[in-house]
Every structure is written in structure tokens, then in C-alpha cells.
Amino acid sequence: MTNPDVQIRINGRAGHITLTRPQALNALNHDMCTAIEQALDAWRDDPAVHLIILDATGERAFCAGGDIAAMYNAGKAGDYDTPRSFWREEYRLNTKLAEYPKPIVSFLHGFVMGGGVGLGGHVSHRIVGESTQIAMPECGIGFVPDVGGTYRLALAPGRLGEYFGLTGARMGPAEAIRAGFADMFIPEADWPELKNALATTGKPSVLIPATPPESTLPEDDINALFAGEALQDILNTLRASDSEFAAKALKTLQRNSPLSMAATLEMIHRLRSPSLDIRKALELEYRVSHRIMEHGDFIEGVRAQIIDKDRTPTWKHALDKVPAVDVSLLLRPLGKEAWTFEETGMNIAFIGLGNMGGPMAANLIKAGHSVTGFDVAGTTVEGARVAASAAEAAKGADVVITMLPNGAILRAVAADVIPAMTPGAVLLDCSTVDVESARAVADLAAAAGLGALDAPVSGGIGGAAAGTLTFMVGGSDEAFAIAKPLFDIMGQKAVHCGPSGNGQAAKICNNMILGVTMIATCEAFALADKLGLDRQSMFDVVSTSSGYSWTMNAYCPAPGVGPNSPADNGYKPGFASELMLKDLGLSQQAAEAADADTPMGQRALELYKQFVEAEDGKGMDFSAMLPRFEKRGRG
């Protein structure tokens, strides 16, 4: 998948991941995390990939953190779910990096902060150079060290974890190695040749450490000054010291969020045990992430440091007055909302992002699924990654959803995406097409080891946006079970109609009834007008008696009568007349193939054909048949 912020390729025997967002100090965003995770998943069992190289472009930073501004904007708007989703997925990526079965070599140059530590600080071989500056500065923005940072801080010797966690002090190469955030120092001038050797041999044994610059870390002072059980203990010790180092550390703590520092200290102490692993640390960190916007200083800290840059945050608590109950609130278990390693969302490819497909894809994104989109018109959906082709979008997807104009285009797209799909994935077509095309595509999918569903929809553009569509589904029970959670997001009802093609058959029969009924409803209103019967009276009688129908009661074609409908908006389409013409054409095509006598369906097709092609019906709602009949006499 193409992503301008990260370059992913195989070079010799190495999978090579390069962050390419130097203008933002290679700060991680959601798309970058997803792309990296997909690459790791693809290379895990690829025998051609012996190890992974992880590096970044630009001189200033490997990765200076996450996209904090985007999370601030979401939280400021009251959207806590979007940042939580990002943190869940980022923490899953951190876990995969730490537990990856193949060697990963990270080249950590320049600033390596926050999310950069999560990306390059847990892998098997962590290289630092002369420019390296590693830090966990989260307490300064009202957050806590996360992305597994507390795991590293809890493992650090002596009280280095408390010191680096509370102050956010930067570690040069020697300090990073000493604190356990890096493994070896190699001069940066040697890195290009070293990467070539790694790609050529596929062996991390080519890594030969050099002696790093001398550390100036005053470990004895740190162990003495940061040994307190609680934040107040450390503050008291720092204030009682007359050393320059203590004064500098105290000044830093006075700038940071008191609540964040108290929570960070408690987290390090809880995690410091023989049974510690990165998953325990990430689970504890997610408790804070989940609550930090509502109950912590995160929004105010980011505002002061990143957004307004006035550097004068108003923290919730004074430095010496952090209630233990507020720390406990951030750290208490989340119950059913707790972070787990399991992937809760699907990887979905969505082909066809028009008036129907776009809103459907948007609803899947809002529900936490990862969506990659492609549309020949270049249409995009906010939050979806953009692929250069349908086949590229389909690669690695759990479900490929198509929303296309007709059966011929469906067949062409299916021929393109099926070879790119992973066996066991599901091809879910939501287009309205002919039964023959639906069944032909299902046969191609089955031959490739894929599930296939034809699932045309009812409910129009409004239903697509509101997530209230009805799906008529054909295909296997197994494929339907996989797609059922997606139907629940995009619609209010999904009916499994039987084997492949039966979804299209149900849609065709349903819409033949709809077309015929709408014509009858419009004819009746036009007749009532000529007989002098008030339209409201007509509606009141028919909607509560044997003439009841959906076209009368829910989609009345008479303006100002019944519930609001396109008739009340100048007949701007909810369901366009040309689409009804298409569906009626499909019904008669199917009727001819099945040798079924459908005279009303045939006559409805003829009337809509005349309305769309010879009158003013194109671009109008299919209920605009009423003004057509109003103008016509019997001749």
C-alpha cells in the first residue's frame, strides 16, 4: 500500500521500513502505524525476509513521537474514541515489534521520543549514534510515558527509571545503553554500509559495536534523590539537597503535570517485578490513555506546549497536592474496555466510494475498522487509506467490499482483486447487478479459496449515511458469519437469503414491487386530484386501510403529505429514477432467463424508460412520477 510517510520494501534478504516524514520529525500517525504493522505481518512467515531494518529519513529525528495535535483536536471536540483507537492499535504494534520472531535492527538517530521509543526501542537490535537523543517527555504535556515506555523505565537500573520518567531528560547514546533503551553504539558514518551488509547477509552478526561517548550521568545522585515512594517524597528530597543537579531536576518537575508525574511514579513501582513483560506495561498504560483526556491534564498540556505554545499550562493540581484518589482513578482496571493484544478491527478494502459506498466506508471507520479505499474517480473518505488500484487495496484485506455500477464492471474488478486477496478472505459485493454476474464472481472467488457474498442494499443514500441499510445476502453461512459484524455497522438488518446470487434475486424482486407500487401510488394521487379528493384525505384513508404500502406510508410522493420524503425537497433523489430503471431492467432480464411472466414489472420498466429517457425524469427521484401523471390525460 502506498503511503507517503513511510517507505516499505524488500531489499535483498531484509524487509526495510523507512519513516519518510522528516518535516514533522517523522512523528507517527495512524496510517503509518497500520502500514508498518501490515508489513510486519506479511514478512513474519516470508522465507525471503531474514530480518527487518527500521530507519528514518532526515537529519533531525528517527521519530519524535506521535501525532499529538490530531489527538488533541479529537479530544477537544469530545471525540475520545478516535485517540483510544489509535492508542490501542499503536500498542498492538509495539507488542509485535517487541515479540517479533525475526531480528529487527533499528537505527535510532537524532530525536527518539515517545512513539519513537515504542517503534524502535523494543526490538532485538537497537543502534544509536552520535546524534541520538532518547527521551520520554510525556509528563510535560500532561500524559504519562506510554508505548511500552514504562516497561523500559521499570527495568532501568537503580532509580534511572524514576528520573527519566519524571523529568523527561534526554539520553545520549551512552545513557540510552545504560538505561536499557538501546543496545550498541556504532558511528553514524558507518550506518549506510552496515545496512547494505544486513540486506546482503540477512544476519545481524555483522553489527560490531564501538565505544560510545563517555556518559555524564550522575547515577549516585539520581539513586539518592529519586528513591522516594511517592512524588512528595522525591520533591522533599530534591528541596533538601543543595546540589546543582537537584535544583535543575526540581525546576523541571515544577513545570510538569503533577498528576502525570504521580501516576508515572506509581506505574513504575507497580511494574517493577520479576514477572514484568511488555504486555503488562501496555495494559497499565492504556488505562491512563483511556482516561487521560477526561480525567487528566493531557488536553491542557498539549494546548500549552504544542498548540498555543504559551508554555503556561494550568494543571489540575498543585505540585504538592495531588490526591491519591485521582492517581488511583487513572490506574484502576477498565473491565471490558481493557486493552488486549487481540486485533478488534478488520482490515477492509472498499472499492467504489460514491454516494453509497463513501458513507458506508465512513461508518466502518468510525466503528474502529481499518479501511483502505479505491475509486476510479479519485473519491476518498476521511480516515481511509488511499490505494493506487483496486488490487493494491485488496492485498491483505480480511474483507473486500465493492459498490459498483453494473455486472460488467463487477466482473472486471473481481478479476483484478481476487488474485490479490488472501485465501480465506471474503469478497462482499454490495452492488445491485444481475444474478448471473453475482454467481459468476462467486465461482471465481470459491476457486481461489475465498468466501463470496452478494449483498445488495435497500435504504438509499440516507440509509447509507445513517447506517440503516437493509442487506439482502447470498452466499455461504461461513462468509455471512464473517461479514455479519460489518452489516450490523452499515445497516439495521441483514437477511441471509441462501446461496450465491440469492441476494441479488431478493433485491430484484423487492425493487420490482417497489417500482410497480410507486407507479400505482402516483396514479392514484393523480386520479384523486381529478376527482376532487383532497390529498391529505386520500393519504389518511389509504395509509390506514387496505391500500397501505411503503410507497404511501413511508415515502409518499405527494409533497406536504405524510412523513418527509424527496417529494418535499423538489424530488431531489433519495433513489434516482435511472436507478429504478436499472433495477427494473435487471428484473426483466432475470424473468426472461427464468421464463417468468411479469407483465406489471415489464410495464413499469417501459414507463420508467420513457420517464428517464424521453421526459424529465433523469436526475429526479423515482417518486417524481406523480407530477408526470398530474400533467397527463387518458389519451
From TrEMBL:
<dbReference type="InterPro" id="IPR013328">
    <property type="entry name" value="6PGD_dom2"/>
</dbReference>
<keyword id="KW-0560">Oxidoreductase</keyword>
<dbReference type="InterPro" id="IPR011548">
    <property type="entry name" value="HIBADH"/>
</dbReference>
<feature type="domain" description="Enoyl-CoA hydratase/isomerase">
    <location>
        <begin position="15"/>
        <end position="326"/>
    </location>
</feature>
<dbReference type="InterPro" id="IPR036291">
    <property type="entry name" value="NAD(P)-bd_dom_sf"/>
</dbReference>
<dbReference type="Pfam" id="PF14833">
    <property type="entry name" value="NAD_binding_11"/>
</dbReference>
<dbReference type="Pfam" id="PF16113">
    <property type="entry name" value="ECH_2"/>
</dbReference>
<keyword id="KW-0101">Branched-chain amino acid catabolism</keyword>
<dbReference type="Pfam" id="PF03446">
    <property type="entry name" value="NAD_binding_2"/>
</dbReference>
<dbReference type="GO" id="GO:0006574">
    <property type="term" value="P:L-valine catabolic process"/>
</dbReference>
<comment type="pathway">
    <text>Amino-acid degradation; L-valine degradation.</text>
</comment>
<dbReference type="GO" id="GO:0050661">
    <property type="term" value="F:NADP binding"/>
</dbReference>
<dbReference type="GO" id="GO:0003857">
    <property type="term" value="F:(3S)-3-hydroxyacyl-CoA dehydrogenase (NAD+) activity"/>
</dbReference>
<dbReference type="GO" id="GO:0051287">
    <property type="term" value="F:NAD binding"/>
</dbReference>
<feature type="domain" description="6-phosphogluconate dehydrogenase NADP-binding">
    <location>
        <begin position="347"/>
        <end position="498"/>
    </location>
</feature>
<protein>
    <recommendedName>
        <fullName>3-hydroxyisobutyrate dehydrogenase</fullName>
        <ecNumber>1.1.1.31</ecNumber>
    </recommendedName>
</protein>
<dbReference type="InterPro" id="IPR029154">
    <property type="entry name" value="HIBADH-like_NADP-bd"/>
</dbReference>
<comment type="similarity">
    <text>Belongs to the HIBADH-related family.</text>
</comment>
<dbReference type="InterPro" id="IPR006115">
    <property type="entry name" value="6PGDH_NADP-bd"/>
</dbReference>
<dbReference type="GO" id="GO:0008442">
    <property type="term" value="F:3-hydroxyisobutyrate dehydrogenase activity"/>
</dbReference>
<feature type="domain" description="3-hydroxyisobutyrate dehydrogenase-like NAD-binding">
    <location>
        <begin position="501"/>
        <end position="626"/>
    </location>
</feature>
<dbReference type="InterPro" id="IPR002204">
    <property type="entry name" value="3-OH-isobutyrate_DH-rel_CS"/>
</dbReference>
<dbReference type="InterPro" id="IPR045004">
    <property type="entry name" value="ECH_dom"/>
</dbReference>
<dbReference type="InterPro" id="IPR008927">
    <property type="entry name" value="6-PGluconate_DH-like_C_sf"/>
</dbReference>
<dbReference type="InterPro" id="IPR029045">
    <property type="entry name" value="ClpP/crotonase-like_dom_sf"/>
</dbReference>
<keyword id="KW-0520">NAD</keyword>
